[in-house]
């Protein structure tokens, strides 16, 4: 009887040991091209220093630029220095997002998210712009007809905004 217990003990012990989540072996690198910080901002978002403008002045210019593009900010906080907008205007989204990974092109719904952050750099200000989005097709009953995919920025919005702020 004692010998049987010795054979069963390892089975009981191994049944109690669990490893949760993916395990990353040493030497492996992450496949993601962009990383997100604790606030949800892309850490690889383009950032420039504008030496002759104060953050308040730039935030006002960003707000005007958003209005000119027909975007309504959902976050507009001068204290923190963030202006952000989301929307589903397909025509505008197609100008700022590259959603070529979506195979179907008819009736696709594109949703964009644009975040501009401005903060003091001592003399001047730093500006960071992040443009992201998704594309897919959701039917009226809430089911995904075309699974949503992440879209990349075309770079056009960021380039144009940063050029205007630098003037």
Number of distinct beta strands: 7
Number of helices: 4
pLDDT under 50 segments (min length 5)? 14-36, 38-43
- Radius of gyration, Cα only, in angstroms? 24 Å
Strand content: 25-35%
The main β sheet shows up as: 7 strands, antiparallel
Helix content: 25-40%
Folded structure, characterized:
The chain is an alpha+beta fold and 167 residues long. 28% of the residues lie in helices and 31% in strands. The protein is built from four helices and seven strands; from the N terminus they run H-E-H-E-E-H-E-E-E-E-H. Strands 1, 2, 3, 4, 5, 6 and 7 form a seven-stranded antiparallel β-sheet that branches. The N and C termini lie far apart (87 Å).
What are the SSEs and their pairings?
Elements: H1 2-16, E1 47-50, H2 55-68, E2 75-77, E3 82-87, H3 90-96, E4 97-98, E5 109-120, E6 125-138, E7 144-153, H4 156-166
Antiparallel strand pairs: 1-6, 2-3, 3-5, 4-7, 5-6, 6-7
């Amino acid at each position: 009887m004692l010998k049987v217990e010795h054979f069963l003990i390892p089975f009981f012990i191994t049944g109690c040991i669990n490893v949760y989540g993916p395990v990353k072996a040493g030497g492996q690198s992450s496949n993601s091209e962009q990383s997100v910080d604790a606030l949800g901002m892309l850490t690889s978002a383009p950032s420039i220093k504008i030496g002759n403008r104060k953050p308040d002045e730039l935030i006002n210019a960003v707000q005007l630029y958003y209005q000119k593009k027909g975007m309504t900010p959902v976050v507009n906080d001068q204290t923190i220095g963030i202006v952000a907008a989301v929307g589903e205007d397909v025509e505008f989204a197609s100008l700022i997002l590259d959603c070529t990974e979506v195979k179907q092109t008819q009736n696709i719904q594109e949703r964009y998210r644009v975040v501009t952050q401005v903060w003091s750099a001592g003399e001047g200000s730093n500006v960071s712009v992040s443009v992201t989005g998704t594309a897919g097709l959701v039917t009226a009953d809430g089911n995904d007809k075309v699974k949503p995919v992440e879209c990349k920025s075309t770079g056009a919005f960021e380039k144009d905004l940063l050029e205007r702020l630098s003037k």
